[in-house]
């Protein structure tokens, strides 16, 4: 795990680096608050040891800046200080510090407190990860999708690149559940989710369970042709699983219908408009007979529909 040590006294950095380096932690260093913010942004640490008394940007101001940055706000910060003042300690804790280590350093105390807060962070990260995953399929859930869509919408708006969404529905899934049982239905959803994940090859592509038998893919920076190709690959990959579906009016196998939408995100449009557009195309795909892809874009409400 990575620890950032921030202190304007080089000897303090050397002592802490030796103590913690012997424990196998990776150490980053900064000698002032502004440098600490740059180092933390470039490579987010798991824990920060932050000196309180520094020129220009002191520890309190640095901590406030960390908490104001969404990327850095969750990093636990332990203040290191020569001050033994309850008022100052309370001030730091109220700003969001998790603990204090006083100078001169007691090596056993430093090791114990760092170990404790790193373990607490590991547990928080694990709980956060679990809360972001769908319990049945193991892929990201609706909560994570909403956060990812909002983030991608802001990024694509800023960078001027496209964003696409694909809404996916397992065809005749209620009939599958009714005929084969819920355990088989759960296994079917897990296999579909795994297949969708495995067939998204580009960095940044994302798939989540939307709810029930529906899934959503987000594809940043994709072209219209790329969107059509990826959607068809997903359709074909699920069909190729050859999961028997005797109650389907579409195919002897489990199949999916897909609706895709492509747009250039803009600040005056809600991110949900992309999902709505993809959902409309999913409805079209199901109306046209299922086991097919329908696509749209901003400029062309229906670009293409193809299926089997």
Order of adjacent strands in the largest pleated sheet: 7-8-6-9-10-11
Counting DSSP H or I runs of 4 or more residues, the number of helices is: 10
Overall mean confidence score, pLDDT: 92
Q: Quick one: biggest sheet?
A: 6 strands, mixed
Question: Secondary-structure element order, as H and E?
Answer: EHEHEHEHEHHEHHEEHEHEE
| Helical proportion, percent range | 40-55%
Helix-and-strand structural type: alpha/beta
Assigned CATH superfamily of the largest domain: Reverse transcriptase/Diguanylate cyclase domain
CATH class of the largest domain, please?
Alpha Beta
Q: Report the CATH architecture of the largest domain.
A: 2-Layer Sandwich
Rg, please?
A: 26 Å
Q: Oligomeric form of this entry?
A: single chain
Number of domains: 2
Shape: elongated
Unreliable parts: 298-308
Strand content: 15-25%
Count of DSSP E strands?
11
- The end-to-end span amounts to 50 Å
Reported by name, the CATH topology of the largest domain is Alpha-Beta Plaits
């Amino acid at each position: 795990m990575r620890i950032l040590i921030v202190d304007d006294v080089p000897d303090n950095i050397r002592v802490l680096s030796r103590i913690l380096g012997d424990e196998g932690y990776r150490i980053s260093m900064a000698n002032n608050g502004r440098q600490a913010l740059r180092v933390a942004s470039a490579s987010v640490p798991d824990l920060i040891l932050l000196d309180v008394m520094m020129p220009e940007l002191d520890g309190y101001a640095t901590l406030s800046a960390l908490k104001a940055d969404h990327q850095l706000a969750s990093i636990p910060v332990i203040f290191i200080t020569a001050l033994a003042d309850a008022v100052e300690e309370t001030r730091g804790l109220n700003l969001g510090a998790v603990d204090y280590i006083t100078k001169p350093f007691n090596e056993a105390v430093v090791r114990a407190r760092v170990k404790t807060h790193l373990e607490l962070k590991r547990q928080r990260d694990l709980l956060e990860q679990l809360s972001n995953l769908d319990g049945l399929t193991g892929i990201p859930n609706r909560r994570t999708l909403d956060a990812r869509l909002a983030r991608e919408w802001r990024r694509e708006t800023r960078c001027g690149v496209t964003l696409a969404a694909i809404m996916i529905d397992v065809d005749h899934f209620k009939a599958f559940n009714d005929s084969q049982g819920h355990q088989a239905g759960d296994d079917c959803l897990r296999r579909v989710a795994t297949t969708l994940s495995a067939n998204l090859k580009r960095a940044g592509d994302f798939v989540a369970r939307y709810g029930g038998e529906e899934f959503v893919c987000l594809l940043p920076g994709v072209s219209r042709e790329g969107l059509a190709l990826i959607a068809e690959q997903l359709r074909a990959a699920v069909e190729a699983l050859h999961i028997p579906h005797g109650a389907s009016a579409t195919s002897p196998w489990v199949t999916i219908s897909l609706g895709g939408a492509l747009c250039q995100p803009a600040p005056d449009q809600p991110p949900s408009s992309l999902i709505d557009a993809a959902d409309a195309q999913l409805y079209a795909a199901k109306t046209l007979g299922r086991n097919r892809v329908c696509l749209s874009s901003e400029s062309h409400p229906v670009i293409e529909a193809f299926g089997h």
